[in-house]
Design the sequence.
């Protein structure tokens, strides 16, 4: 998507590309607009996750068996309207999706912070110290990468049992490697920069050196990776919940809703389709947003 | 007549029968070979006649609700429906229970007799053979029964009182028991007979040779199992020449296959699927009350379920009628005893009325005015609409202050916990496999079985007396007493009896809906 977007921009007449400030700034303006545009669905879902459950409260213990499997927009017996339909025991799908959005975003956010911190720590240490420690940590990462991450997640989740905390833990354990590799590469590059060499020459102690000079240089690439990973983590959570290894029963999650609704695809399509659509939209928006962030932060991509 | 043309004509006739060639094309082709139109017509008619005489025609594709895991009918998988269905056609049983009358009828055994209190003899049908041509003898039956006992699988408790088995001669099997056992002929409905020489070899069950009306053709695990009619079977040739059991685990995929005609029959579909299928002109639904039922057990060895008032309170908190009408619809009805109404020994009891206020006051009386915190264990896909039933039950309990944590577990984990009594509440379905109360009541509710922590010496005695008696009227009376004790003491909540809906293509004829969920297809035919 990004590749094609940037090629399209490059496809303009060369004279214009070479021409200076006005064209550059309008292009930057376009990028900014796009960045804003793709952040809208994300902001929308974050907002919905925060305030939605207050407007459409969800309680797994309030069931209305007389209003089960009502299609989207149906008026229920008590006069209220089920905008996205009801499930097999008469609970509102919209309320479940909003509640599920919380789970998805909490798991996505917390996993990225946890996996990012682990990855950053290991990556920076490995890159800065080098030698045996570097080899050890990176071989460990290679070994883990040899396993398909969802398979590893299923294994760990099966051992830990279903709970939101365990899902975050599980996914962090399968995702830290990417962050470690990126931050190690950024550290290796930063280590050779002149300002770092200068700092070292003036006798800055290693811990301070890492915090003041190395880590800030690793943040931009990590941010880009994080935006890509958030989408993947949300999908991984849905996959685990789909398999019954994610969030516990009674707590709605998009993956679980799709799993439960799939048997009724031909009689009550909304049960699986609605949470599936929400999932696709969020992951797509995050992915496109991530692309724009990368274009913003990567000077080469911008100048090219 | 010249050999060549007759061979060609035969080949063409074969094609007509397989539906690859129309009758008109056949007549044309035969004309080229020098046959008159009248002659070809006679050949065609004669062929059709011959096909009717041999009985077996056509193929039937069956999608079993659960995957076929094993063909071993004696060991751990012996009560799996898929295993039992395939083996009922392949190996055959010693006796069988007539679907309509409930009488025990001969299969491999032609007669049985209780010689004295502790001895049963079975007479083996004379002149019948396994598919490889070797004769079926009492020794084969003995070997199969011994194997059931040795493997100690889920069927072994039926034979718990067996002391020794002996093939007195080729046609007589003698079973000696330690105490009087009236249920032996009923238990024999689940005794699948395999040849003695090979039956102990695990590999034998990859491609078993039996004495049933169908013989083994092929089995591709997780995909397809094919069996073929035995034309000269003692019970007459089956109506369909080939049975194909196809493995389609996803419900939605099974329904689609049924609608497109890829499969001819399936069952155990969710109630929500049935209305659409009912409207389909190409499908029929054969429904029957089954030996299967739902129950929710209380662990009576744990507080607060040691108190009968708490157990009753949880039962009164549920609106069983509404749950059956709204959720189960065509797949179940409110139960009237701890065993389904179709089972021998069933005696109807007074239903527990839906009364949340009574439930609350019973809880308060028992010393829990603020309600209780507990949990329930269960396995997904253990019965129709199980998740919905559970979620609705949790809601009803919450309304009277009983907060129940939903502990959905993986099957193996659940089974381990269940047997170790490591649970507060347990929800599941169960099938009275033999259709006789003994299978369920004695197996599950004696103090010795200790499956729920409930112990009642009076009940123990009744169940043992019922086992010992060979007088069916006396047994029915004893089981009526047992039903009442279990129901009134609320050993568990017995909410629903299940109905099975076999959805099949209209080309199936003479299909008999089986209450034990082990449908037999030997008398079924398919229209061309």
Sequence:
């Amino acid at each position: 998507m990004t590749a094609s977007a940037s090629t399209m921009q490059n496809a303009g007449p060369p004279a214009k590309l070479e021409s200076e400030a006005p064209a550059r700034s309008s292009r930057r303006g376009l990028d900014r607009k796009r960045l804003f545009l793709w952040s809208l669905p994300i902001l929308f879902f974050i907002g919905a996750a925060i305030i939605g459950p207050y407007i459409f409260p969800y309680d797994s213990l309030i069931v209305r068996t007389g209003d089960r499997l009502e299609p989207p927009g149906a008026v229920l017996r008590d006069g209220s309207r089920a905008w996205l339909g009801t499930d097999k025991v008469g609970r509102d799908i919209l309320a479940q999706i909003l509640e599920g959005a919380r789970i998805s975003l909490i798991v996505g956010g917390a996993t990225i912070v946890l996996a990012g911190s682990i990855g950053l720590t290991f990556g920076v240490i490995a890159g800065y110290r080098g030698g045996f420690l570097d080899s050890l940590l990176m071989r460990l990462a290679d070994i883990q990468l040899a396993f398909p991450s969802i398979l590893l997640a299923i294994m760990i989740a099966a051992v830990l049992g279903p709970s939101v905390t365990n899902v975050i833990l599980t996914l962090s354990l399968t995702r830290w490697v990417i962050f470690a590799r990126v931050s190690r590469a950024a550290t290796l590059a930063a280590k050779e920069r002149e300002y770092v060499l200068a700092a070292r020459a003036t006798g800055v102690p290693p811990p301070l050196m890492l915090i003041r000079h190395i880590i800030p240089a690793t943040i931009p690439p990590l941010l880009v990776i994080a935006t890509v990973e958030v989408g993947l983590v949300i999908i991984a959570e849905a996959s685990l919940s789909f398999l019954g290894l994610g969030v516990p029963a009674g707590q709605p999650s998009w993956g679980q809703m799709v799993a439960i609704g799939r048997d009724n695809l031909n009689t009550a399509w909304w049960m699986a389709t609605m949470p599936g659509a929400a999932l696709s939209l969020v992951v797509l928006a995050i992915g496109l947003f991530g692309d724009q962030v990368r274009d913003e932060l990567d000077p080469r991509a911008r100048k090219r | 007549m010249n050999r060549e043309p007759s061979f060609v004509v035969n080949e063409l006739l074969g094609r007509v029968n397989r539906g690859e060639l129309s009758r008109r094309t056949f007549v044309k082709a035969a004309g080229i070979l020098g046959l008159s139109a009248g002659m070809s017509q006679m050949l065609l008619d004669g062929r059709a006649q011959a096909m009717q005489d041999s009985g077996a025609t056509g193929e039937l594709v069956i999608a079993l609700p659960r995957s076929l895991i094993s063909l071993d009918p004696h060991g751990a998988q012996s009560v799996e429906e898929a295993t039992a269905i395939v083996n009922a056609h392949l190996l055959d049983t010693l006796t069988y229970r007539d679907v309509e009358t409930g009488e025990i009828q001969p299969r491999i055994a032609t007669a049985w007799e209780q010689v004295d209190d502790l001895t049963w003899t079975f007479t083996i049908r004379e002149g019948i053979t396994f598919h490889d041509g070797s004769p079926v003898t009492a020794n084969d039956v003995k070997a199969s029964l011994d194997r059931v006992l040795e493997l100690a699988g889920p069927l072994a408790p039926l034979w718990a009182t067996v002391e020794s088995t002996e093939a007195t001669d080729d046609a007589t099997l003698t079973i000696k028991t330690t105490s009087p056992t009236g249920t032996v002929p009923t238990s024999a409905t689940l005794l699948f007979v395999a040849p003695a020489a090979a039956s102990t070899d695990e590999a034998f069950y990859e491609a078993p040779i039996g004495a049933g009306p169908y013989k083994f053709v092929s089995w591709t695990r997780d995909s397809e199992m094919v069996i073929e009619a035995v034309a000269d079977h003692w019970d007459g040739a089956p109506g369909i020449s080939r049975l194909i059991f196809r493995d389609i685990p996803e419900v939605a995929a099974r329904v689609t296959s049924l609608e497109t005609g890829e499969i001819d029959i399936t069952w155990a579909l969710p109630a929500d699927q049935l209305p659409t299928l009912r409207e389909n002109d190409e499908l029929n639904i054969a429904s029957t009350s089954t030996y299967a039922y739902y129950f929710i057990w209380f662990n009576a060895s744990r507080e607060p379920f040691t108190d009968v008032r708490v157990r009753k309170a949880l039962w009164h908190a549920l609106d069983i009628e509404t749950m059956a009408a709204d959720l189960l619809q065509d797949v179940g009805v409110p139960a009237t005893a701890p065993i389904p109404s179709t089972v021998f020994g069933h005696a109807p009891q007074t239903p527990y009325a839906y009364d949340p206020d009574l439930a609350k006051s019973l809880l308060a009386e028992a010393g829990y005015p603020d309600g209780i915190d507990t949990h329930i264990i269960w396995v997904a896909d253990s019965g129709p609409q199980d998740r919905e039933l559970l979620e609705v039950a949790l809601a009803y309990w919450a309304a009277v202050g009983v907060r129940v944590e939903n502990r959905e577990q993986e099957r193996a984990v659940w089974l381990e916990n269940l047997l170790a009594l490591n649970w507060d509440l347990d929800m599941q379905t169960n099938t009275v496999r033999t259709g006789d109360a003994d299978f369920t009541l004695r197996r599950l509710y004696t103090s010795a079985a200790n499956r729920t922590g409930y112990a009642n010496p009076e009940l123990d005695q009744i169940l043992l007396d019922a086992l010992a008696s060979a007088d069916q009227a006396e047994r029915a009376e004893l089981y009526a007493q047992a039903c009442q004790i279990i129901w009134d003491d609320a050993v568990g909540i017995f909410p629903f009896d299940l109905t099975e809906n076999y959805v099949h293509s209209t080309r199936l004829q003479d299909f008999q809906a089986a209450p034990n969920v082990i449908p037999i297809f030997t008398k079924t035919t398919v229209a061309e």
User: Anything to note?
Assistant: The first helix of chain B runs from residue 3 to 17. Residues 338 and 483 of chain B are 6 Å apart (CA to CA).
